[in-house]
């Protein structure tokens, strides 16, 4: 990531004496007036060693010092090997990864942390598919706070075939979720449309005018405070399992955003939702054979489940 800043120091020429600082900067450095004003507001500009306001005037011979921070494109793919990402399978068409918590799938404006796409670039994987550069090969996503198995396409043909398979809902997506309480019935289907939350733009909610969303679940283990569910997704909406379980009043353990109990989260040592993509099955885009890939629970989820199992 480019983090170097451009330091410039100049003496104000006679011809600019009496000009406003932002106007003088714009003339001398070829910046826009608004960018000049931004730099002044951020404290990156000094005249004769003192910070200034954009409307201050400059005099001939004054020393103008400006620091111009490098602008980092939030969508730029930064190649970096990310600790904790495991490669489960790799061939000419696809690469299957086990994504750890705290890693985004691809760069986005609100995210400055590590990404799966950046890791693959840093580790020398060649992804050549159409679509926006920061999302090349991406046919599915997992939340930053959700771990587990996911597939990225390396060839254009694989990208087209698998994108279609996800759209046609022929991909088998299996998650395990530890949710508070005991869902009633023990197994069932949640068919409730999901849309962006009307008050909080970082959340989603069951909304009458949302997009069709279908989640199937069955209870694997029931304990005093929580139940371990196996969840199969028919659709793939953002935060789908988290929203649907929260709507049932059984949020994922640790999922404070969607109403989980913070006391229980602390008790089991979780700083994220207990949700893990355990299995992914689909027809291989090249061979047509059915393939299946699995991921075991990471340490934080395994520990939390042990605490729940032992609670009396």
From TrEMBL:
It is an enzyme of class 5 (isomerase). SUPFAM superfamilies: Alpha-L RNA-binding motif, Pseudouridine synthase. Keywords: Isomerase, RNA-binding. Residues 19-83 form the RNA-binding S4 domain. The keyword RNA-binding applies. Its EC number is 5.4.99.-. It catalyses: a uridine in RNA = a pseudouridine in RNA. The keyword Transmembrane helix does not apply. NCBIfam families: rluA_subfam. Belongs to the pseudouridine synthase RluA family. Responsible for synthesis of pseudouridine from uracil. This is Pseudouridine synthase. It comes from Nocardioides malaquae. The lineage of its organism: Bacteria, Bacillati, Actinomycetota, Actinomycetes, Propionibacteriales.
């Amino acid at each position: 990531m480019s983090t170097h800043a451009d330091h410039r120091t100049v003496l104000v020429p006679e011809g600019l004496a009496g000009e406003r600082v932002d106007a003088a900067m714009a003339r001398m450095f070829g910046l826009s007036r608004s960018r000049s004003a931004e730099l002044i507001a951020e404290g990156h500009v000094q005249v004769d060693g003192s910070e200034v306001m954009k409307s201050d005037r400059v005099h001939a011979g004054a020393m103008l010092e400006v620091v111009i921070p490098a602008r980092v494109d939030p969508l730029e793919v930064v190649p970096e090997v990310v600790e904790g990402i495991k490669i489960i399978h790799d061939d000419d068409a696809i690469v299957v990864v086990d994504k750890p918590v705290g890693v985004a799938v691809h760069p986005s404006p609100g995210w400055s942390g590590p990404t799966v796409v950046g890791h693959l670039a840093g580790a020398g994987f060649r992804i050549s598919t159409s679509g926006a550069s920061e999302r090349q090969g991406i046919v599915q996503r997992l939340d930053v706070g959700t771990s587990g198995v996911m597939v990225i396409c390396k060839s254009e043909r694989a990208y087209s075939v698998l994108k279609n398979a996800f759209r046609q809902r022929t991909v088998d997506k299996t998650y395990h979720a530890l949710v508070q309480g005991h869902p009633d019935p023990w197994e069932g289907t949640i068919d409730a449309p999901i849309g962006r939350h009307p008050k909080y733009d970082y959340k989603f909610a069951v909304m009458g005018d949302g997009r069709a969303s279908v989640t199937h679940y069955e209870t694997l283990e029931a304990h005093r405070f929580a139940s371990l569910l196996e969840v199969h997704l028919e659709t793939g909406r953002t935060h789908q399992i988290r929203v649907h379980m929260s709507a049932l009043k059984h949020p994922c353990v640790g999922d404070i955003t969607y109403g989980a109990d913070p006391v229980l989260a602390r008790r089991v040592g979780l700083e994220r939702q207990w949700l893990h993509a355990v299995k992914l099955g689909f027809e291989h885009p090249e061979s047509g054979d059915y393939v299946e890939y699995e991921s075991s629970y990471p340490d934080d989820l395994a520990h939390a489940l042990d605490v729940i199992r032992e609670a009396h």
